[in-house]
Amino acid sequence: MDLEEKYAIALGVLSIILLVGGTVLGLWLRNAPARVVRTVFPVAAVLTLASFAIFVFVARLHVKG
Questions:
Q1: For the range 37-42, what are the long-range contacts, defined as Cβ-Cβ under 8 Å and sequence gap of 24 or more?
Q2: Structural domain of residue 23, as residue ranges?
Q3: 44 contacts: CB under 8 Å, gap ≥ 6
Q4: What is the pLDDT of residues 18-54, one digit of tens each?
């Protein structure tokens, strides 16, 4: 297994972790006031985007070719 395959597997694991985290966050926000949802949801979206961006940046630095 080469480094590119390892990063692909790690990206899949990251996606599953974010899916589970989003589900838990959704369950927690189910009964929350709208003010809390409007505050937490954009922050969670930015953190999700940032985690994928950092992962891709690190992967591109390490995988040659």
A1: none
A2: 3-62
A3: 22, 25
A4: 999 999 999 999 999 999 999 999 999 999 999 999 9
Counted domains in the chain:
1
User: Which pLDDT score, from 0 to 100, does residue 64 have?
Assistant: 76
pTM value is 0.81
Token readout for 63 is: 């995988």
CB count in 10 Å sphere of residue 19: 10
CA–CA separation, 32 and 30 (whole Å): 6
| E strand or H helix that includes residue 27 | helix 3-29
What proportion of the chain, given as a percentage, has pLDDT over 90? 85
